[in-house]
Write a structure and sequence with these properties.
- By secondary structure, the chain is an alpha+beta fold.
- Helices cover 35% and strands 16% of the residues.
- The strands form two sheets. The chain has a two-stranded antiparallel sheet with strand order 1-2. Strands 3-4 form a two-stranded antiparallel ribbon.
């Protein structure tokens, strides 16, 4: 848009938010770079949460909890121990066998 509007703050526009809570709202008009930054952050968070929801759904289909059992690719991630010399040696982690 040639004149974007960004609305930010702690208010969520519920009745309590608008009538009794101590909330704030900031309205910025016409700042394209600010609107672009807000849009980029919105989509970053949206995609992150969409990914997590898909992992949870995939795990639910397999009959378990998604916490720490799957690799980022969606495959089962068995527990492993780092054997490489350095600060992570002996540290536990989970990863599938696929190369990155």
């Amino acid at each position: 848009s040639e004149s974007p509007i960004v609305v930010s703050g702690s208010a969520n526009f519920s009745r309590a938010s608008m009538e009794s809570n101590d909330e704030n709202v900031l309205v910025v008009r016409g700042d394209k770079s600010l609107a672009d930054a807000y849009a980029a952050e919105f989509f970053r968070i949206f995609e992150h949460m969409r990914f997590r929801n898909e992992l949870d759904a995939n795990q639910a289909k397999r009959g378990g909890s998604a916490e720490g059992l799957f690799c980022f690719c969606g495959d089962v991630a068995p527990p492993r121990i780092c054997n490489k010399e350095g600060p992570n040696k002996g540290r536990r982690y989970r990863a599938c066998a696929k190369p990155w």
